[in-house]
Amino acid sequence: xxxxxxxxxxxxxxxxxxxxxxxxxxxxxxxxxxxxxxxxxxxxxxxxxxxxxxxxxxxxxxxxxxxxxxxxxxxxxxxxxxxxxxxxxxxxxxxxxxxxxxxxxxxxxxxxxxxxxxxxxxxxxxxxxxxxxxxxxxxxxxxxxxxxxxxxxxxxxxxxxxxxxxxxxxxxxxxxxxxxxxxxxxxxxxxxxxxxxxxxxxxxxxxxxxxxxxxxxxxxxxxxxxxxxxxxxxxxxxxxxxxxxxxxxxxxxxxxxxxxxxxxxxxxxxxxxxxxxxxxxxxxxxxxxxxxxxxxxxxxxxxxxxxxxxxxxxxxxxxxxxxxxxxxxxxxxxxxxxxxxxxxxxxxxxxxxxxxxxxxxxxxxxxxxxxxxxxxxxxxxxxxxxxxxxxxxxxxxxxxxxxxxxxxxxxxxxxxxxxxxxxxxxxxxxxxxxxxxxxxxxxxxxxxxxxxxxxxxxxxxxxxxxxxxxxxxxxxxxxxxxxxxxxxxxx
Length: 491
Ligand code: MLC
Ligand code: AMP
Hints:
Elements: H1 3-8, E1 15-19, E2 22-25, H2 26-41, E3 51-55, H3 60-71, E4 75-78, H4 85-94, E5 99-102, E6 120-123, E7 143-149, E8 157-162, H5 163-176, E9 184-187, H6 194-207, E10 210-213, H7 219-227, E11 233-236, H8 238-250, H9 253-264, E12 268-271, H10 278-288, E13 293-298, E14 302-306, E15 320-321, E16 326-330, E17 343-348, E18 355-356, H11 360-366, E19 373-382, E20 385-391, E21 396-399, E22 402-405, H12 406-413, E23 419-429, E24 433-442, H13 448-456, E25 467-470, H14 484-489
Helix pairs in contact: 2-3, 5-6, 7-8, 8-10
The chain binds malonyl-coenzyme A and adenosine monophosphate.
């Protein structure tokens, strides 16, 4: 029994999703998801954890497909809609997907898979709207979803979560943040990461709330929806709050005066996925009347630490362990540190993922012998609240809330003719948190604009360096390792 589906049955006549101004009820969502299950299952009783990749714009169809895959017993593999073909191919082939569900906008991009015998290519038009099927019983220990995350290896890893993991992640947040069927939220975040999928879409559906999709993100449109006065819960990454503030500031005073009391009536506004600058928090308080609730999470664990719903929210702090999540801080010898001392955040509990897909060694390395997940984030506890100090790896960059691996980008740039050596780093930026920049050592002269276009065919825009610097030699230490802190100083 999938709880998110069982819960939906309690709200059949209620609006679940608003997509392009069209309202869809929970009943329509369940019906469409069963049609998706039917077209996946055909004559089979159960997908038995076969991977189903799907590339669908945020909206009603996306939600129906996520539920439809789960109901049919498959593992959902949501694809990033802004990936170029090589990045999509990597995910589709790394997961060994046997089904590919493709929205009309992406059919041409993915057409090479139309002819592949090992993958069933399904367009939205091919899903019989009347389709019904006997649905299998799903054991919660089975795999439910694979999301890709960049790390300290050059290629992204698939994070496999089970139904039990996902239910724990949702349940914890619904309880901590008091979600209910009276809530109305906006879906503006990408739907290939936990923030958009779990914290917003799945928490809303689980609770019988309504989610209105706005795609692509546009600050003015977000305020237009605010003005309709229905929103109660809003969640975004710091970059989005930064962009909303910039937009608000160019509105005529009259519109500003109208908007502030509307936002003051929201029940909850949350920020996460990257550090929230205290300046953004303060400015947002002025505009909206809200102290943003900042929380901390990760693809592998869902949300783990959160500022309180009712009590003091501390600027610059991520809060306290969420219910059902065990947290400890440890030093380099893996010993628990005393309050006030810095240590790596380690996490245990039912929300922690099962494994990196097809990578047993990486999975084993990311857990301690006694089963704690090593996040790589360094924090300290001060007066009972966790504060993030940084990460153990300089090669992980957070830009606009996206986690980006410097090594992955370097690996691609190295293949470009004329490039002898390359170093990628993230440099601080008020709007994006960090921005990706690249130092190049050249064999032959190159035009960095041409390099940039070449990269855009191989990686999404958010991973592509914002600027390049041509240098004689990369700074290295005595061991020959590139000293990235020195590299950062060049920018
Ligand atoms: C876009 N650009 C970026 C970028 N995203 N540059 C650097 N870093 C990024 N992340 C580029 C665009 O390609 C464009 O460049 C220029 O910036 C302006 O783009 P825009 O149109 O203003 O921005 P937009 O494309 O709308 O994207 C902004 C955004 C997006 C904030 C909406 O970055 C976003 O959706 N971020 C959320 C990511 C997220 O959900 N992370 C959660 C991971 S889960 P050009 O050259 O093309 O003009 C996780 C766990 C947890 O972290 O705790 O939640
Ligand atoms: P991802 O792998 O994309 O899920 O990103 C997870 C990472 O985002 C964490 O390991 C943190 O480094 C970072 N992160 C998430 N929330 C916060 C926050 N509130 N403050 C600082 N960093 C955060």
